[in-house]
Write a structure and sequence with these properties.
Layout lengths: L4 H25 L13 H5 L12 H35 L10
Helix pairs in contact: 1-3
Keywords: Membrane, Transmembrane, Transmembrane helix
């Protein structure tokens, strides 16, 4: 059985959301390996890096990875309902009967 485009796009949206979430977590884990000087623990710097205008805690490669993942996911989010609407319209093109028994 052939998969519909809307089904493929739905899977890509869900996969993109999971992939971008995993990428963000992995980026935060590698954000700052320097432990906090006050406590000696690395959790504060890993999970809440200091946000600055220079974006020191994320490399350009990581930034481009997040931009590409987010862009593909957003484009699939936009294309998914359009594809579903077009498929529904194509399926309804042959069956214009609204009342009575259909298919008999």
């Amino acid at each position: 059985m052939k998969k519909r485009l809307s089904s493929i796009l739905r899977s890509m949206v869900l996969g993109g959301l999971v992939a971008s979430g995993v990428a963000r977590v992995l980026i935060l884990f590698t954000a700052s390996p320097v432990p906090d000087p006050a406590s000696g623990r690395t959790e504060p710097s890993l999970f809440a890096p200091a946000i600055s205008s220079t974006w020191d805690y994320i490399t350009p490669v990581q930034a481009w990875l997040l931009i590409i993942l987010t862009g593909v996911t957003l484009s699939c989010v936009v294309a998914w309902p359009i594809a579903a609407w077009m498929e529904r319209r194509a399926d309804a093109g042959g069956n214009r009967r609204i009342f009575g028994r259909q298919g008999r």
